[in-house]
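Work package 3, deliverable 3.1, input record:
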Amino acid sequence: MKIVREALAGTLESSDLMVRISPLEGELQVVLHSEVVHQFGPQIEKVARDCLAGLGIEEGLVVIEDKGALDCVVAARVRTAIARGVDNWTADWSALT
Amino acid sequence: MDESLFSGPVAELEAVLAARDARVARRQDALSGLGRPVVTVTPVMPGPVKDCAASRRVQQAALDALQQLFRDREWPARLISTEAGPTGPEALYAVEAAPEALKRALVDLETAAPLGRLWDLDVTDPQLGALSRRGLGLPVRRCMICDEPAHGCARSRAHSLPELLGAIETILNAAS
């Protein structure tokens, strides 16, 4: 699937994260801001990239502002941002839940 | 453990996130409509059950303590909304107070009140946004069990859910 518009998901409340996804040609970039970037940065990025890969997203800019979210919350918010950023959902619907 | 304290419906992740989105929207409306700092009140309740005897008790105690604080400081306060249900209790207050003084007073409550450790009292200001302990040079919240900074433990799942609920029960028993 292709990201065709900028989309947001999540909040900046404690234990949540805000995900902004936008179109980008030719690469997939994940930018992470987090208080716990040293301890959990790689893990958060991995969860985000796994979601993107699972939904066939190969290009885009994903900016994450993390406020201490657990993996399941990272995944849920990234998926919602993707759903809002694509026009034609052609991935497996069960990937949304 | 007295399991009846913590039993209740399981809140699905999607519902918790949707409730959070709705709460943020309500808060935004209050901030722009009333132009005053808004206090968000929720109980600390780890795990999939957010609505239970423990969380309701904790929330009621928080609301009582806040009303007392607002009276003592002579800060006019309006209760904007309360929510109840499987995603847990919530309340929003709009308060006529300087945002930093308000945040400091709430951190004092969280630190000193018998159930304060179980209260999540956030301040959002129309101009300054969310006020944090760190931003005001106040000590960060500590884990209930091991006293490390709480956000690290929560993320690393350093303690099991039964341990956490046990710690909450200890705090509740000490306060009654």
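Strands of chain A lie at 7-10, 17-22, 28-34, 60-66.
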